Amino acid sequence: MIHTGGTLVMRPREGRGALTAEGLTADLLAELPVLKQVAEIETRLLFQLDSSDMQPENWVELAGVIHGSLDKYDGVVIVHGTDTMAYTASALAFLLPGLDRPVVLTGAQKPLFAVRTDARTNLIDACQVATLAVPEVGITFHSTLLRGCRATKMDAWGMDAFGSPSCPPLAELGLGVHLAGHVLPPRPAQPFDPRIEPRVLAVRTFPGLEPRLLQGALTSGVRGMVIEAFGAGNVPRLTRSLIPVIDTARGLDVPVVIVSQCPRGNVDLSAYEGGSAAEAAGAISAGDMTAEAALAKLMITLGRATGGRVQAARDAFAAALVGEMTPR
Ligand code: ASP
After folding, report:
1. Do 299 and 288 meet the contact criterion of CB atoms below 8 Å apart?
2. What distance in angstroms lies between residue 116's CA and the mean position of ligand 1's atoms?
3. Atom of ligand 1 nearest to the CA of 85
4. 90 in ligand 1 pocket by Cβ < 6 Å?
């Protein structure tokens, strides 16, 4: 069990209401001895962060620790804040493609010390899932196991914080555990590759988005862009057209990847003129990937690109590597 922080282990700071990850409860086995009935657990404190402070470098360090010790354990549980859990889960999925056992992230909407906490159930469920034949990076939350690179935080209030709108859950935890048929088979271990390129920009299109702001980003060193486009992947092409930006990006060998800002559904760049024009200017469809997964995949792909960046992204987004998108 690797601790990175998050609400699950937080307590309010002395004299102030805000929850803090400093001085967090790291000894969850002492707090929740029942966990020892689920599995034989070793704990390790890696970070003490509110997950809004997680950075790509933290993903790589976490993945490296898991990669280096995975053969000693049947599975790994990562205690993590919910805010960026879907980003970390996506990054881990791409950084650890050769999994033969589970890596499960969990957290809570209310801290373990709170009376109405969801931490207890989530932790017990995550530990249980970590003992099962699920060789994937998953998120266990609210009695459900989701594929990490398909999950997104949908709710900042309710206990059912995560959804996976384009991929059914990998498991449901009720009276027993139901494993779904689409759990990936075990994959052979691969050497760890820590390279990552954080200079990626994600932008949500909206009426009024000023293309000059994106042109400015391109000239200030952006190496890749994820555009969260409308509907099936449409961007403005008349007033404040984004097409010249996409074209400029291609000229600078900066890949532009398109996801939909709709939580569910597929990008189809041929469906409307806004998408077709983007595609003709060089944009790359990410199918039904989440914005989180597309961002992580682009950062990792660019970190490893030795030749052209656009071609590397085009190759990477042509197919799913770890179940992150539905085959087109
Ligand atoms: N801000 C917290 C975090 O992401 C929220 C949570 O854990 O639910 O670390």
Report:
1. no
2. 16
3. 4
4. no
Which residue puts its alpha carbon closest to atom 8 of ligand 1? 82
The structure's pTM equals 0.97
Return the beta strands (E) in the chain as ranges.
2-5, 11-12, 19-20, 44-49, 76-79, 103-106, 137-141, 144-147, 152-153, 162-163, 171-173, 177-179, 200-204, 224-229, 256-260, 284-285
Report whether 1 contacts 28 (CB < 8 A). Answer: yes
Using a 6 Å cutoff on CB, does residue 156 contact ligand 1?
no
**CATH architecture designation of domain 200-316:** 3-Layer(aba) Sandwich (3.40)
Tens place of pLDDT per residue across the chain (328 aa): 999 999 998 887 776 678 877 766 667 888 899 999 999 999 999 999 999 999 999 999 999 999 999 999 999 999 999 999 999 999 999 999 999 999 999 999 999 989 999 999 999 999 999 999 999 999 999 999 999 999 999 999 999 999 999 999 999 999 999 999 999 999 999 999 999 999 999 999 999 999 999 999 999 999 999 999 999 999 999 999 999 999 999 999 999 999 999 999 999 999 999 999 999 999 999 999 999 999 999 999 999 999 999 999 999 999 999 999 998 7
Separation of CA 7 and ligand 1 centre (Å): 5
Report the half-sphere exposure of 21 (CA within 13 A, side-chain side): 21
CATH architecture of structural domain 2-179: 3-Layer(aba) Sandwich (3.40)
Q: Where are the domains of the chain?
A: 2-179, 200-316
Topology match between the domains 2-179 and 200-316 = yes
Residues carrying an active site annotation: 7, 82-83, 153, 272
Q: Whose CA is nearest to atom 1 of ligand 1?
A: 50
Q: Does ligand 1 lie within 6 Å of residue 7's CB atom? A: yes
DSSP 148: G
Tell me if 148 CB under 6 Å of ligand 1: no
